[in-house]
Inverse folding.
C-alpha cells in the first residue's frame, strides 16, 4: 500500500481533465453521484446529493459527449428535457471538434413515455430524441412515439446493451455519456459495454434505505474490478474517474496522475 498525495492544483480545467484518454478513443462512460455511505438518491432524487462541483462536472461531461443516454425511469423522475446548448457551450464543443447537436437517447422496455413531453417536443430536428426498446414493447406506444423520436429495436424482450451501443456508434455517436439510473447502469455494466465510471462522492450520510448506483437482481458471478485514473476534490467532495476493463477490447487505461482540486 502506498499513499498518493500530490500537491494540490488550483483552477483545474475540468474539460481537459475529462477529455484526456476519452476524446480521441470515445466509448461509453457513466456519470453518477452518491453519498459517502453509498446512497444514489436523497429524498428520492439525485439532486439532493449534488454539489456545485458535481454540477460543473455534469456539464463538462455533457460538453464532451456525442449523445446522452438515460433510462426511462430516470428521465421521468428527473424531468429530462431535450438539451439546448448555449453559445458558450457550442463554442467549446467546436473547440474540441464535436458536433453542435447533443441528442438524448432513452432506454425503455415498456415505452411508458409521454410523446408530448419536452424530452421530445423540444428536441431540434437534427437531434431528435432516440428511443431504444425491444420487440415485445406495445405496438401502439411505438407508433405514438414514432412521429417525435427515432424508435430503434435492440432485442426481443429486453434492450440488448451491445446492440444499443452498436446502433449509436453506427450513427457516429461514439462518445456515449450514460446518466443512469441505477438499473440502466447495472444492465450496461452486466452487458460489458461500459468503459468508464465518473463518480462524484458527496460528503453526506443519507442513512439506511436509499438505493445504490447499481440496482436489479444480484446476478453477477463476481465483482468487476475498476482502475482509478484520476481524482479531484472540492470542499470535501471527491470526483473520481475509474476505467472499467472490457474483455473484448482488453485492459485500456487512461493516462494521468491523480490530482486534487
Amino acid at each position: 500500500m502506498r499513499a498518493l498525495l500530490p500537491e494540490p492544483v488550483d483552477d483545474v480545467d475540468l474539460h481537459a481533465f475529462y477529455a484526456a484518454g476519452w476524446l480521441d478513443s470515445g466509448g461509453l462512460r457513466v456519470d453518477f453521484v452518491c453519498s459517502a455511505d453509498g446512497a444514489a438518491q436523497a429524498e428520492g432524487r439525485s439532486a439532493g446529493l449534488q454539489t456545485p462541483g458535481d454540477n460543473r462536472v455534469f456539464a463538462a461531461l455533457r460538453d464532451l459527449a456525442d449523445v446522452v443516454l438515460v433510462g426511462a425511469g430516470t428521465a421521468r423522475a428527473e424531468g429530462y428535457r431535450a438539451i439546448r446548448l448555449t453559445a458558450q457551450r457550442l463554442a467549446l464543443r467546436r473547440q474540441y471538434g464535436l458536433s453542435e447537436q447533443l441528442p438524448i437517447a432513452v432506454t425503455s422496455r415498456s415505452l411508458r413515455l409521454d410523446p408530448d413531453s419536452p424530452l421530445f417536443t423540444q428536441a431540434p430536428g437534427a437531434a431528435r430524441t432516440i428511443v431504444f426498446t425491444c420487440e415485445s414493447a406495445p405496438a401502439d406506444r411505438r407508433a405514438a412515439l414514432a412521429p417525435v423520436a427515432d424508435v430503434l429495436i435492440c432485442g426481443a424482450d429486453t434492450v440488448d446493451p451491445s446492440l444499443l451501443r452498436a446502433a449509436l456508434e453506427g450513427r457516429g455517436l461514439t462518445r456515449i455519456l450514460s446518466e443512469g439510473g441505477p438499473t440502466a447502469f447495472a444492465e450496461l455494466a452486466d452487458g460489458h459495454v461500459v468503459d468508464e465510471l465518473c463518480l462524484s462522492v458527496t460528503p453526506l450520510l443519507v442513512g439506511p434505505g436509499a438505493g445504490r448506483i447499481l440496482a436489479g437482481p444480484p446476478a453477477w458471478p463476481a465483482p468487476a474490478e475498476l482502475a482509478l485514473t484520476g481524482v479531484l476534490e472540492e470542499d470535501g467532495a471527491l470526483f473520481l474517474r475509474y476505467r472499467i476493463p472490457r474483455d473484448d477490447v482488453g485492459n485500456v487505461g487512461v493516462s494521468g496522475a491523480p490530482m486534487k482540486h
Residues 15 and 60 are 6 Å apart (CA to CA). Residues 52-63 form the longest helix (12 residues). The mean pLDDT is 88. DSSP finds eight helices and nine strands in the chain.
